[in-house]
Amino acid sequence: MKLRAYLDFICAAKTLEELWLEHVRQMGDYKFDKLLYGYTRQKTKTSLGDPEDFVILSNHCSEYVEGFVNSGLYFDAPMLHWALENDGPGSWTLVQDQISNGGLSESAQKVLEFNAKHGVTAGYTVSFNSSSDRFKGAISLAACDGLNQDDVEDIWREHGRDITLMNNMAHLKRS
Length: 175
Known about the structure:
There is one protein chain. This protein has helices at 3-12, 16-29, 62-70, 78-85, 93-100, 106-117, 149-174; strands at 32-40, 55-58, 88-91, 123-128, 136-143. It is of the alpha+beta class. It starts with a helix and ends with a helix. The relative contact order is 0.19. The mean pLDDT is 90.
């Protein structure tokens, strides 16, 4: 689906399920086949609020969601911390830079080990601009198995603006 057709679809989507399924398909066309979207309206300086109040959408396997989300690994994820402080797209190269500089905590390293076990090793995170400091949303776009971060950077150079726009529009429709 071309960008304009996708945006028309987003505007006309009647259900969250319809929107999410098409969004997953669209991101898959760009070689991002493992998505994790999260949104809270209860963020404070020290908390994201009650996890029971989070909106979480994912097409990851249940074992991944159980470990990363339900068991709380997300709390130590480097790109989550990045997303809380930034808006827009963030390359996972940021994490590779932290590894090279020895700047990752032991708990963050455990998150990366868990991610690697599930093929979540290359990608981008899009952090959404919010109208309130209490609201925050982001989406993790993990690349297909077999792609590395250099491959992802090539995809992003060519299509990053469209991918960011598609994710922003899907987020706005959802929230």
